[in-house]
Design a protein that fits this description.
Blueprint (H helix, E strand, L loop, with lengths): L1 E2 L6 H11 L13 E6 L2 E7 L9 E5 L2 E8 L16 E9 L9 E5 L2 E7 L26
Antiparallel strand pairs: 1-6, 2-3, 3-8, 4-5, 5-6, 7-8
Protein name: SHSP domain-containing protein
InterPro entries: A-crystallin/Hsp20_dom, HSP20-like_chaperone, Small_HSP
Family: Belongs to the small heat shock protein (HSP20) family.
Amino acid sequence: MLLRTTDPFRDFDRLASQLLGSAGTTNRPAVMPMDAWREGDRFVIEFDLPGVSRDSIDIDVERNVLTVRAERVAGNGDWQRLASERTHGQFSRQLVLGDNLDLTKIEAGYDNGVLRLVVPVAEKAKPRKIEIAGATPAVETQAIEA
């Protein structure tokens, strides 16, 4: 279903950002937390994107790679930041999806800061019943009298 992509530098970047106080200012996009599970004939993925505008979210599928990008902008205007613990800037996440999912029928919704993607399982990957054909009718044999 879902092949987990690993990023060995993600935890290092997070730690460096916390220690150096540069949260949201690195060149690498910030991470968006994710949950994924299967519900019957569909695969559900949820991303946490609190404070992100629906218009800034971009979802692409190329072959079997799903890419989600979003951006949380730091406020503009005449104000002075007193604390900055939330990450601002670009968020990006790529997932490699298996061939058993129907990537042409992905549904997306965004509510209360949670992006929810529903990907149906492809028809070819669903379990199906195999009918057993009946035996061919017995051919009657006749004895030939000589």
